[in-house]
Design goal:
By secondary structure, the chain is an alpha+beta fold. It is built from 14 helices and 37 strands. Helices cover 20% and strands 27% of the residues. The strands form nine sheets. It has an eight-stranded mixed beta sheet with strand order 5-6-8-7-9-12-10-11, sandwiched between helices. The longest helix has 16 residues.
Amino acid sequence: MTRVGKCNSLSSVFQFRTYPWDWRFLASLAIAMVFLSGQAAATEMVVRVDLSSARTHQVEELLKMHPDILARGDDWVDILGDESMIEELRDLNLKTEVRIADARAYEANLRARDYFDFYHDYQEIVDEITQVEQDYPHIVKIYDIGDSWEKTEGIADRDIWALKISDNVDEFEQEEPEVLILANIHAREIITPEIALYMIHYLVDNYGTDPRVTRLVDERQIWIIPNGNPDGLDYVHHQDIWWRKNRRDNGDGTFGVDLNRNYGYMWGYDDIGSSPNPSSEVYRGTGPFSEPESQAIRDLFEAHAFVIGLSYHSYGNWWLYPWGYIPEDTPDHPTFVAIADSCVAYNGYEPGNAASGTIYIVNGDTDDWFYGEQTTKYKTFGFTPEVGGPGDGFHPDTTRVVPLIMENLFPNLYVIDAVEEYSPRPIIAHEPLGDTEDLVGPYLVEAGITAPVWPLDESTLELHFRWDGGSFQTVSLMPTGEPDQYQASIPGPGISGTYEYYLSASDSIPRIGYAPPGAPDSLFEFRVWMDAIPPTIVHVPLGDQGVGDAPYGVLAEVTDNIGVDSVWMEYRVNFGSLEVVPLLPQGNDMYQGWIDPQGIIPGDTLQYRLFARDEAAAQNMATLPEEGFFVFTLIQGHSFDFEATNGGFVASQGGDWEWGSPSAGPGSAYSGQHVWGTNLDGNYADDSNSTLDTPSMSLLNATEPILTFWHWYRMEYGDGVYWDGGNV
């Protein structure tokens, strides 16, 4: 059997390892995958754990075991383990199904069929990229960026090789953004080097003939690392197809560190996302970057300014991004979503992170470090494509090699293209000008401007403005004398109309930053005119109140295009004389005042209305409601709406009750903005016992007191049982 030169179904001449079509081989592979589950239990097996009815604490206990998770679905995970692991799962009352009863017999079957002849081992990868460099020396250069652990110990001679593709490949061209594609930091994920190698061939073979490829090679610095775990890949090819980690001798009879738990950002954050136990498949090492393989990647990043980094893994058909160490989104979440959505439009993968539930919690991984470490290197948008589905596993059928490679070709091309759009450029912080009645001007525009990577070119800082849709005029932004602060003025027009404007700044590349983003298609604007628009008042009317709860807080949001001058209210009891009370600013456009009537009794009626005046010359005024009053009745008892205050309620120490505006659960209050809830931003803690006590209330002379409240809840349900509850 010989290696075939071209695969005609592809537009590149990447040399796949192929054989004449042998249905007996494919059939026996299928038989091995399906029927080995019927063999006697061996040392290791592949088991599917059913999580469809699992409680949260069961899942957390499962993760604390640090099982070797091969894959996961919406309600299941596949695990490689021995009989003792299966017993632990059963002790957690988790349902299991054996998928491969003897993992070693499965491996022996693959090796007997020469399965690994379809995949590149370490030396073949080195030979391949060395040949590419020799064939395309004008656009390709390979670099030895570090050693494997076994090389540092004198056991083997394996290096980590990075290949750069660019037009002036021997030069660092700072005007060309950098992108990285990394593969195979988990040894057994053998499809990932094939994706990286094909990408190399696609770029070099099509350079000079395909306009898009030619433009990308000419205008980008493309780095590809086909194998980030040399010792591990060699071990998979020749010893153990299930091996995941590197090959460090931990000195206690165990081997290997999980390189995707060894990166410095939030390394060892908890013992769920990684393990301190050397025998664990997710062992994080003795410290951040303890391994020479992760050190090599770190050093490469710190010497460059990668805009986007892909770290290819298998399997799951996911396109993952940070955060991984906690179930939260990053400050740049919209950018991650935009890039991920564009990539998965080509291959149909599921995009997401730990917050979306797409992936389990991990810490010390590449994506979080690519993005999170912004002190020793530039911020990089890091992604992990998980290639292949449950039917592919770590050892895809040979007929699946080409489809798995090709479904990631166009995502790779998109990412290489997109690094210009997402490249670091000057950041402009500016508070937009508001409407004004000053026709004379000038109008001072101030901005803070910084450049995150390359030096700022102060000669390029400009303010662009136009009057009533006319042509733009441009003036330079000048330093104010304060660090990173600049200013310029827009002249007064002398008449009424509208100004539109934007700001721009370039670094030394040059790359241009704009405010607002998207300028000049998006613009700031302000009106110069005699304002006739009254303020806007937003208020949730008070419901019936308890006599003993006075004074009654009134909270309102008041905004105006010119500015708010004053806010007040009028109230009266039983249609009597009106009392005037100011509402004072509380920040964030909120104003608060208090209704404090005297001599009130149950059954009394209170009426109130709100007023706001702006700072315009016309002193425009708003009234809410526009006609009549808000009305509430005083009752024998107590009433709490939690808007102005927390009502004097007291939460138990260390419990989950919080007062404020919810972002999870119902997402909003029953009325107004504020509620008491158990964790306003997510789920309450497992096995918690939280109490919320009302303030002391006198029920003297009360008969048949009644407690009425609005309650939103979602309770955990499984196995026909509601596991959560509450008592009043």
